[in-house]
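Hello, quick one for you while I still have it in my head. I'm working through a protein record and want to make sense of it properly. Would you mind checking whether the C-alpha cells look sensible for this chain? I owe you a coffee for this, so here goes:
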Amino acid sequence: MIEVRELKKSFGERVILDQVSLTVPQGTVCGILGPSGSGKSTLLRCVNFLESFEAGEIIIDGEPVGYRSVEGRREPLPRKTIARMRSQCCMVFQQFNLFAHMTALENVSIALIKVRKMPKRSALEAAEGLLGKVGLTHRKDAYPAFLSGGEQQRVAIARALAMQPKVLLLDEVTSALDPERSAEVLDVIADLSREGMTMMMVTHQVHFAREICNQIIFMDGGVIVERGDSSMITDPSSDRLKSFLRHLRLV
C-alpha cells in the first residue's frame, strides 16, 4: 500500500531524512519510534505531501505522491491530483484542528459535503455513524470547547475516516492527552487495526505499539536504524534502540 524509496528531505543544510526506504503492506499497522528530532513526523508529512522532498519516491497504492517523472525530469503533480491523494491518505495530528464554530457532527460531515459532494442529510447520517464508531454519538451536538481532549481527538479521527481513506497517518495523537484520555483514543486505533486499516503511526506509546503494530521502525538522525515486528521492542538488535528503550526503562 505504501512504498518509500530512498527519500531525502532537508531544511537548509540540515538533513532530516537521509535515504529512507520502507514498505507498508495493505492492512499493516506500522509504528514509528524514535527520539525527538529523528525525522518521524517529517516522514509522515512527506507521505501526505504536506512537506515536499528533494529526492526519492513515495508510492501509495501504485500512484506516485507529489511528483511524476517526465522525460527523466521530476515535475510536481497537478494540485487536483495531490488533493485527491490526500483524501485517500488522511492524517490526524497532535493538535485536534477542529472547527470551533461547528458541532462534532458538523466537523465530521463537512468533508463529506464539501469534498465528496454528498447531500447534507446523507452526510449528517454518515457522520453520526462515524461518531458512533468512535463512541461519541451522545456528544454529536457538542462544540469543541465543551469536549475533552480525548473526545476532540476521536472526532478528528472520525473526520479522517469520513473520507474512507486507504491509509491513515497518525502523528503523536495522544501526546497532548492525559493517560485516561489517551486510552480512549488508543482503543479506537486498536479497533481500526483489527478492521484491517492500513496505518502509519508515530508514537511514544511503546507498549501500545508492541500490542497492535505488525511492523515497527526505529529512527534516529534521519535514518532507519532498526526495523522488524513487535518482538524487536523486547529483543532489540541495535545498541541505539537498546539505549532508547533503556531510557524508557523497557529493557
